[in-house]
Amino acid sequence: MIDELRASNVALIREAAIEPADGLTVLTGETGAGKTALLGALKLLVGERGDAGLVREGADALVVEGRVVSAEDPEGHIVRRRVAADGRGRVELDGHMASVRELAEGVGSTVDLCGQHEHQRLLTPATHVELLDAWIGSVAAQARQAYIEALKEAQDAHAELERIRDARRADNTRVDQARFVLARIEEVHPQEGELEELEETLPRAEHAEALMLAAQTAREALFGDEGASDKLSDAIAALEDAARYDEKLATFAETLQSALLDIEDIAAALRDYQDTVEFDPQTLDRMQNRMAQLQGLMRTYGPRMVDVLVKQQEARELVDAADNNGELEEAAEKACEEAEVHLKAAAQHLDEVRQKAAPRLAQKVCDQMHRLEMGTAEISIDIESLPRDQWGPAGASKVEMLYRPAEGMSARPLRKIASGGEVSRVMLACKVALGNADGVDTLVFDEVDAGVGGATARALALVLADLAKTHQVIVVTHLAQVAVMGTRHYLVRKHTDALGIPETEIVELAGEDRVKEIARMLSGEISSSSQDLARQMLEQAQQSDE
What we know:
- The protein has helices at residues 35-45, 100-106, 128-136, 138-169, 172-188, 194-206, 208-223, 228-242, 248-276, 281-301, 305-323, 327-371, 420-434, 454-467, 480-483, 511-523, 528-545, and strands at residues 2-10, 13-18, 24-28, 61-68, 77-84, 89-93, 96-98, 111-114, 378-385, 397-404, 412-413, 442-445, 472-476, 488-496, 502-509.
- It is of the alpha/beta class.
- The strands form 3 sheets. It has a 6-stranded antiparallel β-sheet. A 6-stranded mixed β-sheet has the order 8-12-13-3-14-15.
- α8 (228-242) packs antiparallel against α9, α10 packs across α11 (305-323) and α13 (420-434) packs across α14.
């Protein structure tokens, strides 16, 4: 919901700010005071295109700033829009540059400008199925999930069938090429991990003689005649003999004794290593030939062995598809038929859930329209089956809300409603019936009270109050009956500045100031009797809210 909104140099507004309530916020004022300018600022906040014509005369640019929060995100988003007099615009979202589209898809998706055809989600038929499913709840969610899974299963089955058919339709040249590739690779018969093993063992085999000689030379130097071990033994004996006269030499003798033991261990290990190194010309030749074979495959079908194995699998699939006499295709066709049966059943179940609920939702909307004294006007929800090739994630049918202006007249799409006031009241009825299911936090109503008076005005006020229990509602109104229901009340008025230029200001009303505005709305003038009535209406509104 909109936590705050600030506008600078928007039409007749030099500087203005509002902080809408969580529930119902009302905007009142005489015709021409500048309420349209405030609505223009709201449009910019939710991601509509900037219009240089909104820039206040004499100003370089307009600026609209706002903060939009939600229960899930109490910190919300900070929005800043700037539109220069030359038409250039700038969007900032949480301090970062953003596009108008990003703003509309993010912040804009939480706000509906009801009565403004250009920003009303309910006027878009594509949203009607989402709203119906949301209103139904978990039953629709489960049925739709089952349908989506069945649709994915059918799509995968058809894709596999098409792949097999493409393979079978492959020309003889492709098949022959695949046969040649498969035969060439399978002749070598490469194994996964074989190359890596050869790369590790082949160097040892190629240099076996050198490795054996190195081990033997080292061992003889350590443990042969006159080798290091003999010399160490002589040194140890000399030190131990002299240690009778100086004990410090005993420490040296012990250290050398430890070193002698290490040399003996190393000499034993070198002997064992010699035993593991075997120079076998036949084995070496076999390993070198195998490496050459694998490298040849990689030069032709690589550059890596994994690429060779992929080409082998692709060639095998193509050859198998060409050789199996249609068995794979028959199996794939059967899988498609089974998937389609499953999908048809899931689609039928989803349609049944929607068809059962649609009249109940439509009746709830109609009940609200009757509260609003809209005569015999009705809302219906049409569910029309689609051809199989048009089935999508939303289902196998088209769901659309239709509006019948009066008994005996034809139903038509909501977007065809011409009257702004009529649109607003239909939207209001829909919103109340849908409750939280519409997925929108904030509703802004303009022209909702056009042509309304008497008992209808009171009914309209009560419906708006009901809607404000589930949404943040901002309404521009000329009806005192609506104005008294507001949790927060702003007056939009126009005056002339020191230079004689008209200027719109917006002020929050409370106490006697609000009483006076309600009195003006009641009778066109502020008299003691109209003020008394205004106080009475405000008290009644407060009591009804409690």
